[in-house]
Design goal:
5-stranded parallel sheet, elongated, 5-stranded mixed β-barrel, alpha/beta, 20 helices, cytoplasm, ATP binding, Lon_prtase_N
């Protein structure tokens, strides 16, 4: 409906500017796959450097009407790679809305209403944006003059065909009623442009309409397009219920006229994507509350045009919902004997640490589940804190994922951003679960002591809900805005020091100190682990290179390595 009202507003705008003459010098927006016709309103995506420069210097720096009048020209089809391969005829338009963002990269969108045609005489400026000398072709001073000298029979035939098109549609739909009113009251010199902006047409066909300076020629060029579209609607209606929903295709067609997008046939890809999302929602075993929210968002997506800013945001949101492991778990396997072997194979010494880990796993094996505590390994760098967490995941048969918290000073990194913000993303916890694809992984919170506090809140406070077994069963990410059960996630944390960890957060965890290695332990680690690993990586064997314990001890002392 907004698209038809936009076209109606365009006509009203032109009727309300009886004394406007376009400037002789016009800044140009160059588009590759669309045509702006006088009387239509389109949305133009601005992504190229020159077009962005024009928006910044011309449209966002002044409020005068003259500063908002720009030229829209199309690149010649098949000549996109050539310099200055611009179509000779363009359309002067008034910019009625500018939206966009500078982050993460500049991107704007212009809502432009076509005023009149012009002919390019010469390009007088290339940088920072193109400026051309133009000659106005349509007279917009007397746009309301109904004393048209157009062939009456041709105009009548065209209006009759337009009425046939409207009769094939559901007149109860507000958009169709707007269209009917528009066709009845638009001046005959604008009639062809308005209809050509609505019906399906290829880029060369739209350029033919644009090139038709004479109104009678324009009507003759547009009439076959209109009749072809009428026949297409009739064929769809005869096809039966299988494609009956395409009778209102005018809604999609108007998008092709109002927005500089590829041919509307490409919208079939969008429909396939929506259908694929619908199948995924049905196949995903999600809670009832989540399913209702997903169905509601899918309904909004079906009603959106592909160019709308909310389309990609809603699509990304639905992708997240269907990819989250709402009910996918892996069966836990806990063998204490194998756990001991894995820990001994991966770590030398650390007997107290290994004993506590085995006790923790033994309790899990007896009970089948254990909501707490959260193990936190504290020690200097390089003593094996992270690899212990990997060994726990291997023993339990669970997937392992690591979330580095070093330098995080924004609570939104944990909780996620609101979807209304540009560039919004879910929090790290939800993203990690999305990547690991199960709801009961072993999640390592690495360097939890390196959390900072900034102007965007305290991420340590956000972690309290994540780690609290009484609350995390209904953890609500701000982006997702739906409860997700984290109670089956096994959290393991690492830190170098306890002094920087907040007391409430520290109370959630059981601290296990991982001490540094003695000189004798370093020598044994070098002989049993590091040296064989380096020999294998360099394609050597112990027969070629042999290193004594004394040599390893000397290296460890002189290089001050802390394994």
């Amino acid at each position: 409906e907004s698209q038809k009202s936009g076209l109606s507003a365009a006509v009203d705008l032109k009727m309300g500017l009886p004394h406007v003459t376009i400037p002789k010098k016009l800044p140009l927006i160059v588009v590759a796959d669309g045509v702006l016709l006088p009387g239509s309103t389109i949305r133009i995506p601005v992504t190229t450097v020159k077009n962005i420069n024009l928006v910044r210097s011309r449209l966002t720096s002044g409020s005068k009407l003259a500063s908002t009048i720009i030229g829209i020209v199309t690149k010649e089809p098949g000549k996109e790679s050539k310099v200055n391969a611009l179509h000779e005829i363009g359309t002067a338009g008034v910019v009625i809305q500018v939206t966009g963002t500078n982050w993460p990269r500049p991107s704007y969108s212009l809502l432009v209403t076509g005023l009149c045609r012009f002919r390019l005489q010469s390009i007088i400026q290339e940088h920072p944006y193109p400026v051309a000398i133009v000659t106005q072709l349509d007279d917009i001073k007397d746009i309301t003059d109904e004393n048209d000298e157009q062939p009456t029979e041709l105009v009548s035939e065209f209006k009759e065909a337009a009425q046939k098109l409207i009769n094939l549609l559901d007149i109860s739909v507000p958009a169709v009623a707007k269209l009917k009113d528009l066709v009845e009251r638009v001046p005959s010199r604008q009639l062809a442009d308005v209809v050509a902006a609505l019906v399906r047409a290829t880029l060369p066909e739209r350029l033919q309409v644009l090139d038709a300076i004479d109104v009678a020629t324009r009507l003759r060029v547009t009439l076959p397009l209109l009749l072809r579209h009428i026949q297409r609607l009739k064929d769809v209606r005869e096809a039966g219920s299988e494609e009956g929903n395409k009778e209102n295709r005018i809604v999609h067609i108007s998008r092709g006229g109002r927005n500089l997008l590829p041919d509307p046939d490409s919208l079939d890809d969008s429909e396939n994507e929506v259908a694929e999302l619908e199948e995924k929602i049905k196949a995903t075993n999600m809670p009832e509350e989540v399913h209702k929210a997903a169905v509601k968002e899918l309904g909004r997506l079906k009603r959106m045009a592909q160019h709308m800013p909310d389309y990609s945001m809603t699509r990304n949101y639905l992708d997240l919902i269907v990819e989250l492991p709402w009910s996918i778990t892996v069966k836990e396997t806990c063998n204490i004997r194998k756990a001991r072997e894995d820990l001994d194979a991966d770590h030398y010494g650390l007997q107290k640490v290994k004993r506590r880990v085995l006790e923790y796993l033994a309790v899990r094996q007896l009970r089948g589940d254990l909501k707490g505590p959260i193990l936190c390994f504290v020690g200097p760098p390089g003593v094996g804190k992270t690899s212990i967490a990997k060994s726990i995941a291997t023993t339990l048969g669970r997937p392992y994922c690591r979330m580095s918290l070093g330098g995080v000073s924004d609570q939104h990194d944990i909780r996620g951003h609101r979807r209304t913000y540009i560039g919004a993303m879910p929090g790290r916890v939800i993203q990690a679960l999305r990547n690991v694809k199960v709801k009961n992984p072993v999640m390592l919170l690495d360097e939890i002591d390196k959390l900072g506090t900034g102007i965007h809140g305290d991420p340590g406070a956000a972690l309290l809900e994540v780690l609290d077994p009484e609350q995390n069963s209904t953890f609500t990410d701000t982006y997702l805005n739906l409860p997700f059960d984290l109670s089956q996630v096994l959290f393991v944390a690492t830190a170098n020091s306890l002094s920087t960890i907040a007391t409430p957060l520290l109370d959630r965890m059981e601290v296990i100190h991982v001490p540094g290695y003695t000189q004798e332990e370093k020598v044994m680690i070098g002989q049993l682990h590091l040296l064989p690993k380096q020999l294998q990586e360099h394609g050597l064997s112990s027969d070629i290179l042999d290193m004594s314990k004394e040599s390893i001890a000397t290296i460890s002392k002189e290089c001050y390595i802390c394994v």
